Amino acid sequence: MPHIVIECAQAIESEVNIAHLVDAVHQGAVESGLFPDVYDIKTRALAYQHVRMGDTQDTFVHVTVRLLSGRNDEQKSKLTLGIVKHIRALNFSVNCVTAEAVDMNRVAYAKDVVHG
Fold first, then answer.
1. Are 34 and 82 in contact (CB under 8 A)?
2. Phi/psi at 27 (nearest 5 deg)?
């Protein structure tokens, strides 16, 4: 845990390598100190070809961190601010960068892992 999903405008791919974006977001989660086993942090990205922000086609990066409930607001804020900081440190042109931490219900979460 957590599951981190990066959504972004496909147009940013001309300025930043998406793998570097994934690495930056992942590092932001690692540095939060909330996840002692870094193997548990799962980060992936989706780039959207068709984007609209208001009446423009500006670029964006939005990160959703889905984590099991139990962290307080201060911890979640530190996590999301750190992720935004790591994205901005990539120093590419993007109009809007956002991140949110979303609690998952522990009772409703199921997990089955097979190590190979």
1. no
2. -65, -40
Q: What is the rounded distance in angstroms from the CA atom of residue 116 to the CA atom of residue 102?
A: 30
* Angle ∠(47,29,64) on CA atoms, nearest 5: 40
- Residues 6 or more apart whose CB falls under 8 angstroms from that of 115 comprise none
Q: What φ, ψ does residue 3 adopt, rounded to 5°?
A: -105, 120
Amino acid occupying residue 88: R
* Statement: residue 57 has pLDDT above 80: no
The whole-angstrom separation of Cα 94 and Cα 88 is 9
Q: How confident is the model at residue 100 (pLDDT cuts 50, 70, 90)?
A: very high
CB 43 within 8 A of CB 25: yes
Residue bearing the bigger pLDDT, 57 or 100:
100
pLDDT tens digits, residue range 2-24?
A: 999 999 999 999 999 999 999 99
Tally Cβ neighbours within 10 Å of residue 52.
10
